[in-house]
Amino acid sequence: MTLPVINTSALFDVAGKSAVVVGATGAFGKVACATLGNAGAKLTIAAGSGNDLAALGDELAAAGIAATQVARRPNSEADCDTIVAAALAAYGAIDILVIASGVNDVAPVTELTPERFQRVMLANVHGAWLMARAAGRQMIAQGTGGKVVFTSSARGKLGHPAGYSAYCTSKSAVDGMTKALGCEWGKFGITVNAIAPTVFRSPLTAWMFADDEKAVAVREGFLARVPAGRLGEPEDLAGPLLFLCSRASDFHTGHIVYADGGYTAG
C-alpha cells in the first residue's frame, strides 16, 4: 500500500460554511461561536435574550467575526423555522447546526415537581428535537449533507447523587436522539453526533475553580475521579467540536464524544 495523501488542513476546514448555533449565549454556545467563527464559518446565532445576544454579537464583532442574530429559543416549530429562515436569508444554506441550549433544575426527586421536570425535558430534549428537525429538513433539501451537533453531558451516561434526576434523564434522551438521527440521516450525508462535557470553566462553574475551602474540597473530591487531574477549559471543547463540524468526522455519526478528561472511563 502506498502512503495515502491526506490533506489535514482541508479535513478540518469549515471556512465559508453556514453554521447555526442555538443557545449561543450560554457557556458552550460561546465556545461554539468562537471556535467556528475563528475557523471562518458564517454564523447565525440564536438565543432567548435579545440583550445577551446583542452583547455576544459585539464580542464577536470585536474579534472580527460577523454573525446574524435571531432572538429566539427553539421552543416551537415557529421559533425553529424563524432561525432556519434567518440563516437562509443571510447565507443561502445551512451546513452546520450546533444545539447548545438547555437548562438544569437540581432538587431531590421527592421534591421536584412534575412541572419542573417537564421544563427540563422541554428545553433539553423537545427543543433540541424541534431544532434538529427544522435544520435537518433544510439540509436534506439542499442535498449536500451537513453536520448536526447536540450538547449532551457526562450525566447522560452517569447518575449524580445531588438531585439530577431531570438533567440526567434529559441528557440520556439526547444521547438516544443522537444515535437515532445518526442512523436515520446517514443516507443523506448528514452526520449527527453529540459532545458531552463534564465540568469546564464557565460563569456557572467558576466557584469550583476558586481557592476557598468549599471549592477546594469539592474540586479535590471530583478530581479524584478525573484521570486528567484537572477541570476542563473552553479550549478542551473546541477541538472535538471542530472535528464534529468538519469533513474530518464524515465517517463518524451517532457518537457521543466525551470531553471529560477520562471521567466517564473509570
Describe this structure in words.
The chain is an alpha/beta fold. It has 8 helices and 7 strands, in the order αβαβαβαβαβαβααβ. The protein has helices at residues 8-11, 27-38, 50-62, 77-91, 114-142, 165-185, 213-223, 235-245, and strands at residues 18-22, 42-46, 67-70, 96-99, 146-151, 190-197, 256-259. The chain has a 7-stranded parallel beta sheet with strand order 3-2-1-4-5-6-7, with helices on both faces. Helix 3 links the parallel strand 2 and strand 3 (67-70). The N and C termini lie far apart (38 Å). The relative contact order is 0.14. The mean pLDDT is 95.
Overall geometry comes to globular
N- and C-termini, Cα separation:
38 Å
Describe the sheet with the most strands. 7 strands, parallel
- Look at the structure and name the CATH superfamily of the largest domain: NAD(P)-binding Rossmann-like Domain
SS element count, helices: 8
Average pLDDT reading: 95
* CATH topology type of the largest domain: Rossmann fold
Count of discrete structural domains: 2
Q: Which CATH top level class of the largest domain fits?
A: Alpha Beta
Helix-residue proportion? 40-55%
Strand order, sheet with most strands: 3-2-1-4-5-6-7
Structural class: alpha/beta
CATH 2nd-level architecture of the largest domain: 3-Layer(aba) Sandwich
* Count of extended strands: 7
Radius of gyration: 18 Å
Question: Poorly predicted ranges (pLDDT <50, ≥5 residues)?
Answer: none
Beta content: 5-15%
Tell me the series of helices and strands, N- to C-terminal.
HEHEHEHEHEHEHHE
